[in-house]
Amino acid sequence: MRGDSRNSAGSEPYDVAVIGYGPTGVTAANLLGAMGLKVIVLERDGEIFSRARAISTDEEVMRVWQRAGLAERLKEDMLTERPVAFVDAAGRSFFDACPTSRGHGHPPQMFIYQPAVEQVLRDGVERYPNVEILLRHECLRVRQDPGGVELTVAGTADDSVRRLRASYVMAADGGSSLTRAQLNIGYEGRTYEDRWVVIDTRMLQPWPEHDKLRFHCDPARPAVDCPTPLGHHRWEFPLLPGDDEKDLTTEAAVHRLVAHYGITRDQIKVLRATVYSHHVRFATRFRAGRIFLAGDAAHAMPPWIGQGMAAGVRDVANLCWKLDAVLRGRLPETLLDSYEAERKPHVKEVTRRAVFAGRIITERRPAVAAVRNKAGRVLNRVPGLAARLQDSLWIPVARYGKGFQAAGRTKASGYQVPQPYVIGADGARVLLDDVLGGGWLVLRTRSAALQPAWDRLGLPHLTVTSADSRPAAGTVVDTEGILLRWMGRHRAAVLVLRPDGYVYAAAPAGALLPPPPAGFAPAGASSPSAASA
């Protein structure tokens, strides 16, 4: 709940302070802004970071940005449906991949140019006068008390110092998080010995297969060759023994590296080359009282399946609605304990898959690489086996094995429902989330029993009807039968969906749902400005 202290300017405290304005922080600012919370964002730098760190994202992240109202604009600057090839030292493919759709209503993988993505997300925040942005401001200190958090903030441009108060703090300030260090939270794991030079280029003239992601699995020197939108292209190479790090980032060295793959000076302009290390790290805890770690401040993973940025977006999608519910008095503060319980196992599994993919790509022993190449070609010829390997490398299905869900787990518990196109009451064909509305909701089939315990709460209800049905108030027409089949497979005639689209409770036809959570008050709750600690 909100504290009753004031900040140094004498105004009411903020509901949430967000430290860091990269992809994780700016996504949080959009989500919290849309919820109507009073938010302050602190960012040390004055401009968007120019280096394109992340180069891809996925359908579940796009679904989060869809809820922020920005997905279609973001997709204008992305490349979708691009093939992926694992190639040997001679450039011959030994395994071709096509990421498996998880049913979120967007392409399963999209290549991005991160500065452009961040600009669209920052433009989106401008829709919300309740979100204040302080660029060139660094949070030097956080101090908690029972009523909130005091933040000591320094202006990096003018050496000013001010103190702010917020009910909760979300620290999305990167892998070297000062906030995490102040809280004495460990950041455990390992840093790989190999360092990699990352090269961003502008494409001047296209070359064959320039729009295909290729992992060059050459034991002599592996490489990543990746298309990025808006006329850019990314290359990544490991430093080998004897390489000089400073020399390898020069334009001449970059051209020597890419010349191995037939790329000439006439085809690319080198924008920047930077050396970095791969990390596998997890904060020992994601929460310290009223302060939460998100994104790289909470975890770091290798880049092989493009999930570093995506994991941070998933973090804030999980956390923002929970902060809103607690601040408005709609659920008890213990709800916030479920953030780490849900996110940490998922991000660990994604990291495990990224590490596995990296081992395949960067194998340096020629004999082992030869076995890998032969096995890959065999798998490529057997559709079932190839699909299983792809699935083991790709992002796990969106499901929380534990956390905030009803007791008496069912087959549907903890899953995020798929998002097909449906026809709403007005006859328009839209993605499901555009009908769900981003709040708690009861989704049912015609065979579902009445649910008096939930009906008394006044939650919105939607009935899923078959493709031959007419649009009507309180229904969605499942034009392709995707929702009805999914509910049938999970033996669920009625679902209670959380604001993030995950199943809180489910029941088969004729059965009652588990009771609502203790302290749940979705209707008639106080506004954030009236909530008390």
Explained architecture:
Strands 1, 2, 8, 9, 10, 11, 17 and 18 form an eight-stranded mixed beta sheet that branches. The N and C termini lie close together (4 Å). Helices cover 27% and strands 27% of the residues. A hairpin with a 2-residue loop joins β17 and β18. Among the domains are: 14-77 and 110-188 and 282-337, FAD/NAD(P)-binding domain (3-Layer(bba) Sandwich); 421-507, Glutaredoxin (3-Layer(aba) Sandwich). α1 (23-34) runs parallel beside α8 (308-327). It is globular, with a radius of gyration of 24 Å. It has 533 residues and is α/β, with parallel strands linked by helices. The model is unreliable at 1-6 and 524-533 (pLDDT under 50).
Question: Layout of helices and strands, plus pairs?
Answer:
Blueprint (H helix, E strand, L loop, with lengths): L13 E6 L3 H12 L4 E5 L12 E3 H9 L3 H5 L3 E2 L3 E4 L5 E5 L11 E3 L2 H12 L5 E5 L1 E9 L2 E8 L5 E11 L6 H5 L4 E17 L9 E4 L6 E6 L3 E7 L6 H4 L2 H9 L8 E16 L3 E2 L2 E3 L5 E2 L7 H20 L10 H24 L4 H16 L1 H11 L27 E3 L5 E3 H5 L4 E4 L7 H4 L5 E5 L9 E3 L4 H8 L4 E4 L5 E5 L26
Parallel strand pairs: 1-2, 1-11, 2-8, 5-13, 11-18, 22-23, 23-24
Antiparallel strand pairs: 3-7, 4-7, 5-6, 9-10, 10-11, 12-15, 12-16, 13-14, 14-15, 16-19, 17-18, 20-21, 22-25, 25-26
Helix pairs in contact: 1-4, 1-8, 8-9, 10-11
